[in-house]
C-alpha cells in the first residue's frame, strides 16, 4: 500500500504544470494539462484548440496547436477568451481525446485527459442530391467538401466523443449532432432539412432557438440565407419559417404563397405580401414584451398545454422589443393578440383551404408568430407554443 501511494505521488509531482508567464493578465488565457493513455503519460502528443465562439462561424477559428513533453505535459496561451474545443492525439493518432471547454477567461490547469482508441467516420450525403456538399465537424480539423460524384466523405482518427455537425450547400445550412464511439467505425447519413428557415446562419440566437425546436419537435431545421439562389430547397420542405432578419423579396413571397407546405412568418412585410393581413397592415410592429392569449387560442388543440386560469398575458421577451402584428381576415384563428389593442393579432393561423385576409385561398396552413431578431424567446410557454404550432402545421 505504501509503494502504491508513493508511486501515485511521484506521478502527480512529475505531472505538475507551471503556469507562470504571460497569461490572462494580457488577455490571453494560458491553459495547461496532461494527456494520458492507460495511466501513462503520452509523450510528444499533439494538442489542438479550436475556438467555438460565434464570430468564427461553423468551421471554427484558427487552430492553436502545441505538443506534450516527455511527461505528457502541455501548455499554451490562447489568443482570446471564449469557448473552445480541445483535441489531442498520440504520435501515431491511434489514440485521442476531445474536450469541449466552457468559457475560458483566465489561466487554468486541467485534470489529466485520458485518451481512448480513435475511430473512422463515414458521412453520407443522404438526400442532398447531386450538389456539392460542405461537411464540418464544428471546431475540429474534420472538414471536407463532398463532390457531386461522391456519396460520402471519410474522416479518420476521430477521438471518441460528442460533436456538432454542420452540413449544406453554398446557400443552405443544417446542423445536427454526432456521437463517435471508441474504436468503432461509424456511418452517419445526413438528410436535407424538413423545415426550411429563411434567415441568417450566423445568428446565434436563431441557432439556439432552432436547437430547442429540434429537440421539441424532432424535425430537422436548415437555414437558407438566399432562397432565390437555392429554390430547390423548397422541394423537400415540410414547412417554411420566415425570420425577421430575412430580406424582403416580393419574388420570394410570390413563390412561397402558391405552395402547399405550411408557412410560418415572424416578418411584418411577409405577413402582408403573403396575404395574412388586410391592405395597409404591412410592416406593423409594436414595442412590447408580452401578448394576451385569447379564449379562442386556449380552446385550440395546439394550445391545450396552457392553463386557462393562469395564462392571460404571456411574456415573450425579458426586454421590450419590436414585434410584428397584423389585422387578420375573418377566417383566421387568433391565438395571441395585443394587450392594449385587441385588434392587433400577433399569433394567428389560417387552416389550409381557408380564405386569407386578401381573399385568396390558403394552399397550406399559414401562421404568424412574432419573433425578434435579437433576444431569445424568454418564456418557456412561448417557446412551447411555437413548437406546438409547427407540429400542428406539419402533422394536421
Q: What is the CATH architecture assignment of the largest domain?
A: 3-Layer(aba) Sandwich
* Domain module tally: 3
Query: How many beta-strand runs?
Result: 28
Spatial extent as radius of gyration:
26 Å
Main sheet: strand order: 13-12-15-16-19-18-20-21-28-27-26-23-24
Number of helix segments? Answer: 6
Keywords: Signal
Protein name: Carboxypeptidase regulatory-like domain-containing protein
Structure characterization notes:
It is a single chain. This protein has 396 residues and is of the alpha+beta class. The protein folds into 3 domains: 16-117, Immunoglobulin-like, CATH 2.60.40.10; 119-189, Immunoglobulin-like (Sandwich), CATH 2.60.40.10; 195-395, Rossmann fold (3-Layer(aba) Sandwich). The chain has 6 helices and 28 strands. Strands 13-12-15-16-19-18-20-21-28-27-26-23-24 form a 13-stranded mixed sheet. Strands 1, 2, 5, 8 and 9 form a 5-stranded mixed sheet that branches. Strands 4-3-6-7-10 form a 5-stranded antiparallel sheet, with no helix packed on it. A hairpin with a 5-residue loop joins strand 12 (133-137) and strand 13 (143-146). Helix 2 (204-217) crosses helix 6. The longest helix is centred in the last third of the chain and has 16 residues, at 380-395. It is elongated, with a radius of gyration of 26 Å. Mean pLDDT is 82; it is low at 1-22 and 54-59. It comes from Chitinivibrio alkaliphilus ACht1. Keywords: Signal. Residues 1-20 form the signal peptide. This is Carboxypeptidase regulatory-like domain-containing protein.
